[in-house]
Amino acid sequence: MTPADVRAERAGSGSQRFVRRWPRRIAVTVSFVVCVLGSMVGVGVFGGTPIAEAAGGLLAADSTHLAPASGAFSIWTAIYIGLGCYTVWQWWDDDTRALAWPAITSMLLNAAWILVVQAGWVFGSVLVIAVLLGVLALLFVRCLRRRPSSAIEAVVTDGVFGLYLGWVCVAICANIAAALAGAGFDGFGSPQWWSVGVLAVATVVGVALARFSRGRLAVAASLAWGLAWIAIARTVSEPSSTVVAIAAGAAAGVVALTAVVARVRAPREIAG
């Protein structure tokens, strides 16, 4: 085979790979658009009902002891911007297959969750967010297995999906509490201490994620952010609870501190 034949074969295989990647890249882009449109419905655009008012207000900041204050939801701005950056980046990266399909699924599930809440199906929304949490966990593990080729790649993969995962870890707690409240569950007669138990589980999950990821800051930051806003909500709005506020604040601090310690220790463990 002559050098010209080799070059022609490489060009052909490169063209084939480029064509095969097009459907995946388009699917990611379409999913991002659907995700953004869903979020717009969730804030009341296109005739949608704001999430805090949908489903009888079960997801409002004053609905349960585990509901974050409204300021917590500003994190979605960062998540959507991050997903947009990922969507743009994946058009130029040659190795996105491992992340693309879980990313697509996560964005579609996010839109589905909003539509299910709009329909008032709170227990259905718990099922959707549980699947979303599983998909994001898989996606985060795949991010950890990759070796980012640049700081930009690290931000739009580990950073974005870590932020997304950490927030959903908190959101599922609030979602389950809302669904149970709607069904008349009173926390076995002690909603404050039941909520503290849930926060303890969230803390264990946050610590495990921090250690497993060797201190990835994005996932810990968003999880701690959500927990901190639960503490704020129980301090400044109903149902007020000093016990839950202290527990949520302590949980946020433990998760954040564990991540920092794990990140400091990670280079030493690798070197050892």
UniProtKB/TrEMBL annotation:
Keywords for the protein's UniProt record, in alphabetical order: Membrane, Transmembrane, Transmembrane helix
Keyword Membrane part of the UniProt annotation: yes
Transmembrane residue ranges: 26-46, 66-86, 98-116, 122-141, 161-185, 191-210, 217-236, 242-262
InterPro entries in UniProt: TspO/MBR-related_sf
Superkingdom of this protein's organism: Bacteria
Residues of the signal peptide: none
Protein's name according to its UniProt entry: Tryptophan-rich sensory protein
